[in-house]
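ping. complex inputs:
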Amino acid sequence: MERNRQGAKAAYVLLTIVMVLWVLSPSVVRRFNREAFTEFQAPALHLVGKGRDLARYWELKSRNTEDLVAASRDLARVNAALELKLAMMQDLRDENKRLREIARYTPPNTFYTVVARVGLRETSSWWHRINVRKGLDDGVRPGCPVIFGDRVVGRVTVVHKNSAEVDLITSPAFRCTAFLEGDDQGRMVVVDGRAANSLTPPAARVWNIPYDYSIPAGTVPKVVTTGLGGIYPAHLVLGTLEANLRNAQDGNFKEGVLRPGRDLFSLQEVTILVPTKPSRAEDLLSGRYDELQ
Amino acid sequence: MSWAWLLVLLVTYPWLLLADMLSDSLASWGVVIFITGAVLVVPCRRLKLWQSVLVAGCLGFLFEARRPIPDGVMAFWMMAAAIFFSTRREWLRNFPLLLRAAVACNVLGCLVWYFAAAWALPYRGTIAWINVLPELILQVLTAAFAGLIFLLPVSYVQELIMDRAGVPVAKDIV
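pong. complex structure:
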């Protein structure tokens, strides 16, 4: 027993030394270690995702053929309507291009899309995250916006070789600027996630709302992205603003609750918007500061 | 057998994955099914000290790899717990004691990652702790319950692999 206690003392001393070395070690060591343990888990997570897809496949396969034919017919109609819309949009696009050339307007950053299946979801008080099955190999970069339709889902925070972690808009680590529907002056507000409480549905906080802003009667105002800052394209829907606005602590602004546009935890697939040109921040991080200068 | 720790880790990982899948199903509840602390106690009962510390470190790093927890916090806490249990094997000599240790280890581990993640948050100023308290209580209760539920099947698999690997049964347990 006594020998055990002495062994414990030596082990604790050794552990303390290792901890100090760990803290003092360059961040690349810690990053490599984290990445190694993530990649160790990656095949299993992919397998889980594939298994889920397979279950969905068999579920669909077991459906009645008549249902599938009806669904295909409906889709064909929707496709025909969309093709018509697309043809009409072409005229608008041409006109838009001509006007931009006349005005010498610098076009905003363009994106290409990467569709990704959702792997695992996980929420706690401090993070609301989904794991998606697309990563560095597919061109995904940290900071890329993640959407579903015209709704913002979140932002890519960590990218691995074949997977990425996405912070949802309700996550406490999420923050972006937005406009409120019904505010004619187009004043900017800030949206950030808030620490979760399981007893209430997940929500984000909208703050910096101008004191004289009031919700138009009979409407549920949408909160949309500003397009400023270069991360999110403009006019994507973040969610809706709840009616009960309250005064902020400083007394000059109001704050409210944002309900996400979709049930973020039932998403099966999302779209990642990857900027075609790296942002300023990415340029700085990749050491192209001199070029920027 | 010096590689026994790796075998134990490999047979434990599917259970951690299962817990992650359960967390996925309960995502709208905001609860993480945490069992990393509970799966540590059985290896500590039979493996050598250095082996159990290695298992603990790997379990900790596996947990924190995909989550916004400061690097090494869980791993070093798990290593300290492994040293504690490996040098006090009389505390793990029968199943009720093992169960108690698993629940205690799981709950403490849960508290460690919970507060470490809060500390790592980029906008800490906005946290209203009074709102978070029910969530913390729920998380701790879930960790205790998960420790109770998962210990039996996980310990069975871990004991089996240690038997196969020829790891001797600890003297003070017999």
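DSSP finds five helices and 13 strands in chain A.
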